[in-house]
Specification:
Layout (H helix, E strand, L loop, with lengths): L1 H14 L5 H13 L3 H6 L7 H15 L4 H5 L1 E4 L2 E4 L12 H10 L7 E5 L5 H9 L4 E6 L2 H13 L6 E5 L10 E6 L14 H4 L15 H10 L3 E10 L7 H8 L3 E7 L5 E7 L8 E2 L2
Helix pairs in contact: 1-2, 2-4, 6-7
Bound molecules: S-adenosylmethionine.
S-adenosylmethionine (SAM) binds next to α7 and β4.
Length: about 290
């Protein structure tokens, strides 16, 4: 029965132009019916209640209409953890894992104690880092109350809620104390480009998570101004950047009086993370790997 269901779903997704209809069919069956890939592919009969059938059909219709699978499922895997999505959160991108990798690399053997995540969305950056470093605590900000609600839930789901504080504010406004690590993946799309983004982004990611102002750099200007009083003298700040911001963001860092130390590429070779510090005066920017 499930084989039939599997083939029906796969055919519908294929007709809708989904790239990997087999994989997505199995993901939907697993999510709604709890069916394993092995059981589905072996043709085992996995019964569906009427409620499960209705839920599956509703999800299928949304996917056929072009809604991204992660939005239909309501969650996204990031850094091996599950994150709930909501209409107020960005769907976390695999490229953002470059920031996590860089943080782990820079603090290897001496984890940071306090972390600040500016513009947290689902909370994926802070929560992944707290998951890696059980001795660390963190503060995460967002302007969106809805995003913060989802981030709080994600902290619970991933068992770090007792070490994370979520604050509704603009950038780091009102945040006090010193942090060993400041991270941010702020909105960095040039405003005029937003209407031309891929339909999967434009129609489903909130505009607040995308719009970086006229030159895409507004958020960095604000965050760099605030960073000076929040980053401890031997602390590190890591900012995600757009593929074409590998020169403009380091320049802003320098203009703010901080030091751009490295630009780290993502797995596709595009500039993705800018590392900066406040305690050193000489510009030491270097390509990284
Ligand atoms: C590109 S998204 C990144 C979300 C998440 N950190 C991630 O990597 O998936 C940028 C986030 O910044 C938030 N944001 C936009 N303007 C803000 C502001 N003025 N102050 C704080 N957060 C803001 C958005 O709501 C959004 O959650």
């Amino acid at each position: 029965m499930t084989t039939t269901l599997y083939h029906d779903i796969r055919n519908r997704l294929k007709a809708a132009g989904v790239d990997d209809p087999g994989l997505e069919s199995r993901v939907l069956l697993r999510d709604v019916l709890g069916a394993s890939d092995g059981a589905i592919l072996a043709g085992d009969e996995i019964p569906a209640t009427p409620a499960q059938g209705a839920a599956l059909e509703a999800m299928l219709v949304r996917r056929e209409a072009g809604e991204p699978l992660s939005r239909v499922l309501g969650f996204r895997e990031f850094w091996g953890l599950n994150f709930k999505l909501s209409p107020d959160t960005l769907d976390p991108r695999p490229d953002t894992e470059t920031l996590i990798e860089t943080a782990l690399n820079r603090f290897e053997g001496h984890p940071p104690k306090r972390i600040l995540d500016i513009g947290t969305g689902t909370g994926c950056i802070l929560i992944s880092l707290l998951h890696e470093w059980p001795g660390a605590t963190g503060v995460a900000t967002d302007l969106s109350a809805g995003a913060l609600e989802t981030a709080r839930e994600n902290a619970q789901i991933n068992h770090v809620a007792d070490r994370a504080t979520f604050v509704q504010t603009s950038w780091a406004g009102g945040i006090e104390g010193l942090f060993d690590l400041i991270v941010s993946n702020p909105p960095y799309i040039v405003r005029d480009v937003v209407p031309n983004l891929d339909v999967n982004v434009r129609n489903y990611d909130p505009i607040l998570a995308l719009d970086g102002g006229n030159d895409g750099l507004d958020a960095y200007r604000s965050i760099l101004t605030e960073m000076k009083t929040l980053l401890s003298p031997d602390g590190i700040a890591l900012f995600e950047i757009g593929f074409d911001q590998g020169e403009s963001v380091p320049r802003l860092v320098e203009e703010s009086g901080a030091t751009p130390v490295a630009v780290i590429p993502d797995s596709g070779g595009n500039p993705r993370v800018v590392e900066c510090r406040v305690g050193i005066s000489k510009k030491t920017i270097a390509p990284d790997s």
